[in-house]
Design goal:
By secondary structure, the chain is mainly α. The chain is 68% helix and 5% strand. Among the domains are: 5-53 and 159-211; 235-277, no CATH class. The chain is built from 10 helices and 3 strands. The protein has a 3-stranded mixed β-sheet.
């Protein structure tokens, strides 16, 4: 189960308080303040660079998700006007596409849902009324959706690689170690050491969440897609795993659908059950 940010904060703080008993007093190994300043500065520069890069990528992904959802709704509405007989088919195709998207993380879901997306594209080709401005708009929407998915393929991927994480962790660990080496045997020094050490780790936790696209993920990866289910006239849908891991809140009232996997992670085949009254 993924630990939430508050739990990570508490565990980190308790851990560094415990280190106070391992490093009860200042070690007399010479002046290390210059070394600490250099390491801390280097960590700050590198971490700041990656935070800026991942945030830029994250905000771009937010924009693309909003664009994808709005285009899906527009495509659905246009088809209903141009070819009302395709209502059931387009509803099912979009519904299946969104349900399939919940099986995967953002970094790979585009690559894993091409089959479902192709079904949507096939339905747009069944529209017979083609001599109208509305049909031209439908083609533009379809092209925009394909382009948006292509952009999301790149934007949804992680920026920070293994070598980057090793560098950040080594610098963070070194700076924390030097903090405890320099610590004075006073309450104020102990509090400062714990706070600064905890903050250093929290920067890494935050960076991981942003890079994994799990920062504020309930809005980014879940709530926005429930809007489309509602526009289609379908019940909200949630993955059993997301509910178990508390990545999304269970609706307090009303009915909703839950995808229950038969043999996860070997297969994403699932049964969909309706929950609630």
């Amino acid at each position: 189960m993924r630990m939430n940010f508050i739990l990570k904060t508490l565990i980190t703080a308790v851990f560094f308080v415990g280190l106070l008993y391992i490093f009860p007093q200042r070690f007399d190994i010479g002046n290390v303040s210059t070394l600490f300043t250099a390491v801390a500065l280097l960590f700050g520069v590198i971490a700041g660079f990656f935070i800026a890069a991942t945030l830029t990528n994250y905000f771009k992904l937010q924009s693309l998700v909003a664009k994808e959802t709005s285009k899906l709704i527009a495509l659905h509405e246009n088809i209903l006007v141009l070819e009302p007989s395709l209502k059931k088919q387009i509803n099912e195709a979009i519904d299946n596409y969104l349900i399939a998207a919940f099986d995967w993380e953002f970094s790979i879901y585009i690559d894993k849902t091409w089959d479902e997306f192709d079904e949507i594209i096939k339905i747009t080709k069944k529209v017979k009324e083609r001599d109208s401005e509305l049909y031209s708009q439908l083609l533009n929407i379809r092209d925009d959706l394909i382009e948006t998915r292509q952009e999301m393929t790149l934007t949804g991927r992680r920026i920070i690689g293994l070598s980057h994480w090793v560098t950040l962790i080594v610098l963070a660990s070194t700076s924390i170690f030097l903090l405890y080496v320099m610590k004075e045997p006073s309450l104020e020094s102990s509090i400062f050491t714990v706070l600064l050490s905890s903050t250093t780790c929290l920067v890494l936790f935050l960076l991981q969440e942003i890079d994994n696209n799990t920062f504020a993920e309930e809005q980014l990866a879940f709530s926005v897609y429930q809007i489309i289910f509602k526009r289609l006239g379908n019940l909200p849908y949630f993955s059993e795993l997301d509910l178990k891991e508390k990545r999304v809140k269970i609706p307090k009232s009303g009915k909703y659908r839950v995808g229950i996997y038969k043999n996860y992670p070997k297969s994403v085949e699932k049964d969909i059950k309706i929950i609630g009254h």
